[in-house]
Write a structure and sequence with these properties.
Blueprint: H1 13-28, H2 32-39, H3 43-50, H4 58-68, H5 73-84, H6 89-98, E1 103-108, H7 119-129, H8 135-147, E2 159-165, H9 166-170, H10 176-191, E3 195-200, E4 213-218, E5 225-230, E6 233-237, H11 240-256, H12 260-275
Parallel strand pairs: 1-2, 2-3
Antiparallel strand pairs: 1-4, 4-5, 5-6
Helix pairs in contact: 1-3, 1-5, 2-3, 4-5, 7-8, 10-12
Organism: Actinacidiphila cocklensis
Protein name: XRE family transcriptional regulator
InterPro entries: Cro/C1-type_HTH (IPR001387), DUF5753 (IPR043917), Lambda_DNA-bd_dom_sf (IPR010982)
């Protein structure tokens, strides 16, 4: 059972949802485990939602409304929480899961993953995705992306292992100075021994995940999950066979990528190419 903590329900929509769920659960006489059994999730997961450390899900809210006989109250609150999220709806659940993951493994064939982006790189992406997007909205989106970097502050959790296609390093997403700073940022992260990066050389040719951007996550109290992303969309998968298939493909891709040491050398070499002119 997740022990109750002091929660100000007016801190955020998610906090309000958590406080309401706790109130309704206790009013109905359920423990966290008891409610979890009725709605097909763990008691720990119920506790995490109540403490506002996990984002509520719409289908789960609907099941809890039925069990707790709330007249759709939790579904309405859940929609409010989803509307208030700072991230794209299809990615918000992934951000939530990352904060609880033990390990995060990624393959990126298109862009430097958002968690490792710096301001010029992120801003160029958001501006190019929608040239008519208001400057204020761009700044809001950049701030939301950069705010995720706090996840790197914990020296032990999660453990990261990232495979980047060489073309990602060489694609001039922003100006030369910005690209130099972005790649040196990656190099500093590697040298701090916080994240393991491997570069997939362009010379490798075909490899198991060359057409996909994949994130694989493992957890202490939940099955592993996979997230597959494309432009403006993404799919979160938790079917064991599918996740295992992606995990095997990841291992094959890792086997043909450069070693972490050679990858760091290449990252710094490409960074110097950007600074040469």
């Amino acid at each position: 059972m997740v022990q109750p903590k002091e929660l100000n329900p007016f801190d955020s929509p998610q906090s309000f949802y958590g406080a309401e769920l706790r109130r309704l659960r206790e009013k109905a006489g359920f423990s966290q485990e008891g409610l979890g059994e009725r709605v097909f999730c763990s008691g720990a997961y119920v506790g995490q939602i109540e403490s506002a450390s996990r984002r509520p899900q719409l289908d789960l809210s609907q099941r809890m409304d039925t069990v707790l006989d709330t007249g759709g109250h939790l579904e309405r609150l859940c929609r409010m929480v989803l509307k208030a999220t700072k991230h794209a709806e299809y990615f918000a659940d992934v951000v939530d899961l990352m904060t609880h993951a033990l390990t995060i493994r990624q393959v990126s064939n298109s862009l430097i993953p958002g968690l490792f982006q710096i301001e010029p790189y992120a801003r160029a992406l958001f501006e190019s995705a929608d040239p008519s997007r208001p400057a204020e909205k761009v700044e809001e989106m950049v701030a939301a992306r950069l705010s995720r970097a706090w996840l790197l502050g914990n020296p032990t959790k999660p453990k990261f292992w990232i495979i980047l296609n060489e073309n990602v390093l060489r694609a001039p997403v922003c100006d030369r100075q910005g690209m130099y700073e972005q790649l040196m940022h990656l190099a500093r992260i590697v040298r701090a021994r916080r994240v393991t990066f491997q570069v997939m050389p362009a010379s490798v040719g075909a490899h198991p995940l060359m057409g996909s951007d994949i994130t694989l996550m493992t957890f202490a109290d939940a099955p592993p999950a996979a997230y597959v992303e494309a432009a403006r969309s993404g799919h979160l998968l938790d079917t064991p066979a599918m996740v295992e298939s992606y995990a095997e493909a990841y291992d094959f891709a890792r086997a043909v990528a450069l070693s972490p040491e050679a990858s760091l050398d290449l990252i710094e070499s490409v960074a110097e190419e950007y600074s040469a002119q």
